[in-house]
Design a protein that fits this description.
By secondary structure, this protein is of the alpha/beta class. The chain contains twelve helices and twelve strands. Bound molecules: guanosine-5'-monophosphate and manganese (II) ion (MN).
Amino acid sequence: MISKVIAEEKIQQVRKLIEKNDKIVILTHLSPDGDAIGSTLGLFHFLNELDKQVSVIIPNDMPQFLKWMDGAKDIVVYEKYPEFAEELMADADLVFCLDFNARKRADCIEPALVKSKAKKVMVDHHPYPEDFCDVTISYPQICSTGELIFRLICRMGEFELINHACAEAIYVAMMTDTGAFTYNSESPEIYTIIAALINKGVKKDLVYQKIFHTNSADRMKLMGFALSEKLRIYPEYQTAVITLSKEELKRFNHQSGDTEGFVNMPLSISGIRCSVFFREDDQKIKISFRSKGSFAVNRIASDYFSGGGHTNAAGGEFYGTIKEAVALFEKVIPRYVATSVPQ
Ligand code: 5GP
Ligand code: MN
């Protein structure tokens, strides 16, 4: 048995909304990651078992390493098919918002989301959810939105309806949001859930390979370059920074998703508690933050880089040059080091 994390009242509200409504749209955040895609596909397969008319819409495309997933081909990418996505949004009578806590994170879908008259349900684990849904299921202590989807389905009494595709999607979500169970993964209930998913037929070693063993030679070389040429250590702040410019990315034939996970690498250096990765995109600098323990990188992201996220994994953006973005970071980092307790 796993403990009852989600409030009973919310479970009943969601159950009624699903019973009453047939045209359902599931949304997730910009640049969807494994938890975003895993949780949406998990819910998608469950709702299909209930014979609902269900669609998944994502703002922009998912990384290549998730495209093998069952149902991934049915996902509507708003950027590619804006009119079709708008039609689905206009028709929907129930919208699920998964793995994001603020309308802004839906990016190009935000206007349609705000305009929509559909009932809305948020299922998410980022702190400080915005109040824009009829039901808000937000539990930051839970490792992934995928785990919350599992808990929601089970608490509605529908464990039997979790088919192989649904179980696999939930597993992908849980595995990717914990770095293959290497952080945010101390809760024993995670493993009770995984055992249930394996019993549903999930081949966990195979899933790991499909997600993590998909490097191109170019990506490996870019990684080597980033570590040997572009890594800067700030010992006084227990911090590491990597930057990659557009020109450098081009040199290694950069494909979308290639730099995924780069930010995690410096955290394996002894004594490093904070790692930041600055990537030059077309219009802006995308910044990823990772940390250990009480070093709250979501505060730096929201205070200075128009972003947010979790205590130990956050993101943001900067309009200007990489040099300016790093200069701002260097200026403010001492304040955050001073407020975090070393571990
Ligand atoms: P990543 O570095 O993988 O892009 O993001 C890490 C975490 O930070 C994710 O859980 C994501 O939800 C959050 N995050 C990333 N970018 C942003 C952003 O621009 N705004 C907010 N609020 N959160 C972000
Ligand atoms: Mn997540």
